Amino acid sequence: MSASEVPDAFHHVVRPAAMPGSPPLVLLHGTGGDETELLPFALTLSPGSAVLAIRGRVSEQGKLRFFPRLADGVFDEDAVLRHAAQLARFITAARELYGLAPPIAVGYSNGANVAAAILQQHEAVFAGAVLLRAVNPLRAEPRASLRGTPILLIAGASDPIAPPGLSEDLAATLRNQGAETSFRTLTCGHALTDEDAESGREWLRA
């Protein structure tokens, strides 16, 4: 199988592992980002990991996303489910193509939200997740078991887009699916900080 033959292909970049045994990372950017946005973050998080960095293919006023929204914080759940399913299929096929072990999702903002949708609805796509500034984009009943899956959620105390309370609600949903969730609130807003990367690195080590 070639990259062009991967089902529901997304534009992406792949970085091979620099250290055997490091968990592969799937990078999912925020609104207005692209496949390069989280590459520096990933180098701090787990410098030896293979990386599959994916570009969202939904455009909102010229800004790339992984699924459309009706307004800030208002989601079209049918669209979320459809786009999450397409992304899940692509990640599964890309793993086979590139010979990747079960990966850790690293999602920021919209990328974290689409990762959360995949975690709720599709089993065995991710071995774990780091969800940065995430909220739950779904009211649909979760279908997937996350028994024993480690997930870290990091919120910003002054984040007006993904306030800590909504991130905690998502953590509870994932915990009810069996995930081993960790939740941290940092003294920051919606933008990522060096402390996000350090917190994620400590979590991965543990």
TrEMBL record:
GO terms for molecular function: hydrolase activity. The keyword Hydrolase applies. Keywords: Hydrolase. It comes from the Bacteria. This is Hydrolase MhqD. It comes from Methylobacterium isbiliense.
